[in-house]
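Quiz preparation item.
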């Protein structure tokens, strides 16, 4: 089982980034996908999640209207489009997968995790 997050980097405030989460080794189409972020000394924070068909999506309050989660089942890949980035969006972003049809914001409910990709928003 593998989840590979990528696409992080340094971006100026107001800029955009798109993160990718490539999945392998399990039936990706049966799993909900979540994105979380973490900064030093803080707990992992919910960012976004979508169900197996991406028909249902949920976002953390701090990213609503700026971030969009999507998935491409044919490519076994999920995405997080991040626009209007702010310095407080800085952190390590993780993707996770959960065998369920009910999306959740709770990190401990997810079965598989990727290694994280660093996003730094700074001028």
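Solution:
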């Amino acid at each position: 089982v593998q989840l590979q997050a990528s696409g992080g980097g340094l971006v100026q405030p107001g800029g955009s980034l798109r993160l990718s989460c490539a999945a392998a080794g399990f039936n990706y189409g049966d799993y909900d996908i979540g994105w979380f972020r973490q900064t030093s000394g803080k707990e992992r924070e919910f960012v976004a999640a979508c169900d197996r068909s991406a028909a249902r999506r949920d976002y953390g309050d701090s990213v609503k209207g700026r971030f969009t989660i999507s998935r491409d089942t044919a490519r076994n890949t999920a995405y997080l489009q991040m626009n209007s980035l702010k310095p407080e969006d800085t952190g390590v972003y993780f993707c996770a997968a959960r065998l369920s049809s009910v999306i959740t914001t709770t990190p401990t409910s997810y079965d598989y995790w990727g290694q994280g990709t660093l996003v730094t928003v700074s001028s």
